[in-house]
Amino acid sequence: MSVETMVLALELVGTFAFAVSGALLAVKKGFDIVGSLLLASLAGLGGGVIRDVMLAQGVPTAFGAPLYLIPVALAVLVVFVRLIREDRLRRTLLAFDAVGLSLFCVMGSFIAYEAGLNPVACVLLGVTTAVGGGALRDVVANEVPQIFNPDGVYAAPAFLGAAATTTALELGIFNAFAAVGIAAGIFVIRFLALKFRWRVPLAVLRPGPVR
């Protein structure tokens, strides 16, 4: 499998995973099918659109290639007919969100690297791609974005995945196996963070009483 084919596959799978998380959130909030489609689109396509706008390379891929709408529509459908539902697997929404996060941090960093950005910018854009769609989904649904939830590290695994991807690219050892391996590692870290409720330090070391 070529690297280009691998990146396309990662993006489509990640889009589907994030879109499922959006559709499940719509179910949780009691939205109709239109609301489900909106949240699924924001979650599945939002991070990539933000990335492409920041790269300023023309029309975002999600708008220029109808192929990317297929995983979004499929995600809405499988949730609508209850093939995937929150009560079948504990924290199903967060599980699919973790899949999207792990794939998008790899894919976002690779696309930024191919666009000629420096390593630091590649890492930052990889993280933005990974967390952007989920943040848009949660804000529109009036939820606290996962990136701001102290229970279960979110951005930190994305930073690790983006940094690992950029390092592999710089060393010339990035390939399909490396991409899948990095994504799998980030998923495991995110899953463990949720399971054991790992936390990152709060914004203040010793918070005092709120006045």
Task: Give a written overview of the molecule.
With 211 residues, the chain is mostly helical. It contains 8 helices and no strands. It has helices spanning 3-29, 33-55, 61-64, 69-80, 92-114, 119-140, 155-171, 176-195. Helix 2 runs parallel beside helix 5, helix 2 runs antiparallel to helix 6 (119-140) and helix 6 (119-140) runs antiparallel to helix 7 (155-171). The longest helix has 27 residues, at 3-29. It is globular, with a radius of gyration of 17 Å. The protein starts with a helix and ends in a 16-residue tail after the last helix.
Work out the helix count: 8
Low-confidence stretches: none
Q: Order of helices and strands, N to C?
A: HHHHHHHH
Helix content: over 70%
Principal-axis shape equals globular
Give descriptors for this structure.
211 residues, mainly alpha, 8 helices, 0% strand, globular
What is the fold's blueprint, element by element?
Elements: H1 3-29, H2 33-55, H3 61-64, H4 69-80, H5 92-114, H6 119-140, H7 155-171, H8 176-195
How would you summarize this macromolecular structure in one to three sentences?
This protein has helices at residues 3-29, 33-55, 61-64, 69-80, 92-114, 119-140, 155-171, 176-195. The protein has 211 residues and is mainly alpha-helical. The model has no long low-confidence stretch (mean pLDDT 90).
